[in-house]
Amino acid sequence: MTLEILKSGPQTTIQAAPRVGQRHLGVPYSGPADPLSMALANRLVGNESYAPALEATLGGLSLRFGSPAFFAITGATAHARLADRPLQHHRTIQADAGEELHVGPATLGARVYLAFAGGLQAETILGSSSTYLPAKLGGHEGRSLVIGDRLSVNHHDWSADNHETPREFQPPLSTSWAIRACDAAETGLLRDRRQLFDRNFRVASRCDRMGIMLEGPGIDVNSDGGLASAPVFPGTVQCPDDGRPFLLSVDAQTTGGYARVAQVARADRHLLGQIRPGDHVRLLWRDPQSAIKDLRSKLDYWCAWLDDIELVI
Amino acid sequence: MSLANKIQSCGDDLLSVAVPGPAESQQLAARLRATGEWLEVVGGIDTVALRFDAANIDADAAQRTAHESIGAGIPVVQSSPVVVEIPVCYGGEYGPDFDAVCSMLDLSAEELVALHTEREYTVDMLGFTPGFAYIGGLDKRLNVARLREPRVQVAAGSVGIAAGRTGLYALPGPGGWVLIGRTSHPLFDATADEPFALSPGTRVRFVAVSAL
């Protein structure tokens, strides 16, 4: 089965499992910026959580189905229609050959996910088929999709009607995010930790899969720009000397030399993928033990719908 | 030496082990990676980060495991016998910060190039993005800080300095190092049998060229 891209939106890529275990070589994770939403889409069409699917940043995607297909749409709120029928998120949808799917601009949240029964075919490189744009790795020719691209969907024998994510497992979206975070290695370099934690920041236009820049009253950090480069991860909050911190996301570089002033708790890292410019962010301080408790409660809750949730969150 | 008191929590699923320097970092990281007990082991210049599965392992248990596995101390990495020559075109459009560095450090252009090319260096580690090499041993007179705000876009092949090291950007992307030149030396090819041109311990020398 093939899909033809009619409109590619600001940035649509194929994402799959993260590229783990190679950070010591400078190879970032990549993978879906919001892995929970992508797993939910895959769940609705009988795929594994990390089956290759589309991540459409800020929506704006159109495609045509070459043959009948089951698909599902999750993630950021965006008006979607198949031929002339309006579509609901979080449902299994059947498309007929030749039908066109149109996804409008995202109105709440940043990334729309589209999963197709069988999963997309994608290039596997360095252990994953996730697209990593800076090095042109994986996905579809290592790049974001353009009009005219043809994608292939793997054969499958799955079928189900009226599949729907239960309401309590449809993640809420917001323009204002409370993100739990712990101290990191250089939190001690903050002149006043209250400048970072429990305070509102506005998301700058510098916001992508690598990092999310936060603007606010400014943070005083005593690093003098001369720290020894050290490992960073998705969720690391780095603060350059200009006082505007970055929340590193799934394409986070593997090492860096700006002060690591906080680390987003594992339980909340998936939220970073839905933060968009203009949103507001507040970091809620947690000690590591409480953050781990939060994580386990969240996993306990989600395992009722996603049995491999430990690999997703 | 004992590292038992040098483990620090770095988040709810991350620990950081302080080490004396990059050679020890790479050696300890390789050994800890081989134990298979960690989701991720990444060496920095003077720290090693350990990521554990917080869904199943408690923070204090992870700390105990780390203490036990670093107890044996750290052997030191051997540098390679081969010296890789890296051609660098200094200044101009390729080194947008070159002139500012000269005036800040009170050096002429010739002096800056001479200080950067006259000695042999060793690759401390790979990191940042695929193919980026951290190269230690910079002359102390070339010590500059990172940019206060990282650039949105740094060209592939850019040669930067910061915090006592030279950094080679294999890929285009954002970056906060002070850019003094650019190289055409290939640094990363994902399709090659050996994707990374340099590795920790590789000896390098920079050679000034007038064009790329």
Main attributes of the structure:
heterodimer, A: 313 residues, Cyclophilin, nine-stranded antiparallel β-sheet, seven-stranded mixed β-barrel, 3 helices, 9% helix, B: 212 residues, alpha+beta, Gyrase A, domain 2, elongated
Characterization of the model:
The complex is a heterodimer of chains A (313) and B (212). Helix content of chain A is 9%, strand content 34%. Chain A is mainly beta and 313 residues long. In chain A, the strands form three sheets. In chain A, strands 1, 2, 3, 4, 5, 6, 7, 8 and 9 form a nine-stranded antiparallel beta sheet that branches. Chain A has a seven-stranded mixed barrel with strand order 10-17-14-15-12-11-18. In chain A, β14 (236-239) and β15 (246-248) form a beta hairpin. The model of chain A has no long low-confidence stretch (mean pLDDT 96). Chain B has 212 residues and is of the alpha+beta class. In chain B, β6 (121-126) and β7 (133-136) form a beta hairpin. Chain B has a seven-stranded mixed beta barrel. In chain B, strands 1-2-4-3 form a four-stranded antiparallel beta sheet, covered by helices on one side. A two-stranded antiparallel sheet of chain B has the order 8-11. The chains are: A mainly beta (313), B alpha+beta (212). Chains A and B meet through β13, β16, β17 and α2 of A and β3 and β4 of B.
Q: Summarize the biggest pleated sheet of chain A.
A: 9 strands, antiparallel
Q: How do the strands line up in the largest sheet of chain B?
A: 5-12-9-10-7-6-13
Named at the architecture level, the CATH assignment of the largest domain in chain B is: Beta Barrel
Instruction: Briefly note the structural class of the backbone of chain B.
Output: alpha+beta
Q: What is the strand tally of chain A? A: 18
Terminal residue distance of chain B: 46 Å
Which shape of chain B, going by the Cα principal axes? elongated
